[in-house]
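does this look right to u?? adenosine-5'-triphosphate version
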Amino acid sequence: MAKRIDVSGLTAYYSAHKAIEDISMTVEPRSVTAFIGPSGCGKSTLLRTLNRMHEVTPGGRVEGKVLLDDENLYSSSVDPVTVRRTVGMVFQRPNPFPTMSIFDNVAAGLRLNGRYKKSELNDVVEKSLKGANLWNEVKDRLNKPGSGLSGGQQQRLCIARAIAVEPQVLLMDEPCSALDPISTLAIEDLIGELKERFTIVIVTHNMQQAARVSDRTAFFNLSAVGQPGRLIELDETSRIFSNPSVQATEDYISGRFG
Ligand SMILES: Nc1ncnc2c1ncn2[C@@H]1O[C@H](COP(=O)(O)OP(=O)(O)OP(=O)(O)O)[C@@H](O)[C@H]1O
Ligand SMILES: [Mg+2]
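got this back:
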């Protein structure tokens, strides 16, 4: 199958600190890939190298390549702002723009991208909120602030905002860790629907969640505290959770680690 993302020999630093080392992996289109592994192994760092957010952190730099549909995101001709539009991101804590209405939160990225007629904006906002399974809950209060929604609704609002600009890839860093179990299931169902249209990479500490939502799972680990994180194993999720190739993966998923 064609690879949407192809990472090779990727090492990422925060100033002198090497956070992840020599990561090579691929991500297939229209699939969900889960990143799992202990705290500090570099899951968030790797995720942020996939849309050039890593370099926004002072001292953040990378070596190696990340190809998106065969184009190296790190080549000098590539504009990081365009990359971030193509590769969207949803964060751990829902972060709607607090002073903006629900409508404006979803429309924000589109407005940055250029001029839209009011009717076009209406259509995209409705479609995105429907895509994020939030439309029915907010359609009568689109002009109310996004910050007035529940945590789970705010996270779906952030997903609506991310998908409104039609990214090719959606990166999600522990998107459910601040949510209750019902909102978590709503987001998981949504991920299942979104993968029909987008390529999704999700970081999670929840093994059941990785097993439920992902097609492939990547396990990362550290050889010792302070050492860079490495990719230990990437395989079909069913295989990672039933019969992984590496003992460290088995130990981690069964809770025998540390
Ligand atoms: N802004 C930063 N400045 C300096 N070092 C950082 C920064 N962010 C992360 N690091 C370091 O990079 C390494 C990887 O961190 P990262 O946040 O990617 O891990 P993680 O796997 O996402 O952990 P968690 O599961 O706790 O979210 C750690 O050693 C961490 O201390
Ligand atoms: Mg993290």
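The longest helix spans residues 118-131. idk if thats expected tbh
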